Amino acid sequence: MKAVVQTRYGPPEVLELREIPRPVPKDNEVLVKVRAATVNTGDCEIRRFEVMPLVWLPLRLLIGVRKPRGTTVLGQEVAGVVEAVGKDVSRFKPGDQIIAATGLGFGGYAEYVALPEKRTMAIKPANVSFEEASALPVGGLNALYYLKAAGIRPGRDVLIYGSTGAIGTFAVQLAKHFGANVTAVCSTGKIDLVRSLGADWIIDYTREDFTENGLSYDVIFDTIGKSSFSRSMSSVREGGVYIQANPTITDMVRGPIASRRQRKRVLLQYAGDDSEELAFLAGLLGAGEISTVIDRCYPLEQTAEAHRYVERGHKSGNVVISVEHGESAAGEETP
Description:
This protein is α/β, with parallel strands linked by helices and 335 residues long. Helices cover 28% and strands 26% of the residues. It has 10 helices and 15 strands.
């Protein structure tokens, strides 16, 4: 099968398209014929291995110390069709169209990936494309996790910083779904996008600092880790929550201290994956309650270029890899 392989850490050029053996599912695994995957900031950080010091050593030991261990195929989320299942699998059957988070096993940049049945997976709505569905496990689950942890409910005033990224675009829509009043922070060129997502108010950060306008919020959700910790905390109301989805070491030290000293909570922990939550999001997507923002789609052969584009830092929503499978007229794959 075709796969984009990484044999060393570094720039996008370390990603190479190769032919590697198709995985054989173990007894507890599902073999997925990948139809779409994504490139997000986290994939680029792993490729370069520029990660937080707190997780540097554990990840290095897991993935490879001097270079990636074995045949490393990146890609943390996929949508595709179940090709085969192991004898102990009960949740899925061949032919099911699914969405999956691959976790730190990665594997999304390939024609096939084998995943344990216990991995976060859900059935894809029939009326949703593979490309649209593929972005739910990272952006959607992170947005949902943090908003629920913050106690999102009708009438709460929520500010979302980084509202046009993979997490932010879902966060705006989910906050509105739960009845919140949403203020989205973005650049001038993306105002129309966040307005289309349902934001009630929009702040153009190139013209205004939200921490200096005298307004306060029940929840401030920084999806990208670029807001000022101290100034953001001063804009959170008593009893409110400040969410940092991409915290620095300094933030992780200051967070618990600030939470104890003030009647405000700081959420810094990493979001977990959950199949029921993914199914919930899939239901909203299928019902048209939320939508996936796709900036660009690339074929598998151009995965390195997709990484270059993401690293420029100007994407809106998600960058998707569409995986085409050569098939004959009878529907069988060509050799």
